[in-house]
């Protein structure tokens, strides 16, 4: 026996309501994660160590191409902090943001001048977010620029 038409119509609203709740919750969380990514970019641009560290949960971790292993995000003093101190010119910019489930991916670019050496970076930072803070971050970039600080490095495509 089929349910009355009025009851059938009422049941049609349930998937619509569930879909709406899912869509609107992801928009809200996506906006929150984007704001967190923007705050990370701004802290890096300002060379603000304490602001950058404050973005991490107390148990949050950070890992990059130079450190090679997870370190405490709220207390890390990775290669960026040393570079910030030595750079007379520093630019750090957001190129692209992609929201992901419980986090995001940031494509970024940077330029620094240390002494007479110009350093250009491009990279991606993949991170998870929880309670408006970074729970973990993996920051991958070309380490070639850091090698230039140690010794002269031939440009890509140059023959030895």
Describe this structure in words.
This protein has 160 residues and is an alpha+beta fold. The protein has one domain: Nuclear Transport Factor 2, Chain: A, CATH 3.10.450.50. It has helices spanning 5-46, 49-54, 79-86, 144-150, and strands spanning 56-64, 71-72, 89-100, 103-114, 117-130, 133-141. It has a six-stranded mixed beta sheet.
Regarding quaternary structure, what we see is single chain
How many domain units? 1
What is the radius of gyration computed over CA atoms, rounded to a whole number of angstroms? Answer: 22 Å
Per DSSP, what share of the residues sits in E-state strands of 2 or more residues? 35-45%
Major beta sheet, strand line-up? 2-1-6-5-4-3
Q: State the distance separating the first and last CA atoms.
A: 83 Å
Element-by-element helix/strand order = HHEEHEEEEH
CATH architecture: Roll
The structure class reads alpha+beta
Outline type = globular
Mean pLDDT comes to 79
Strand tally is: 6
Count of helical stretches = 4
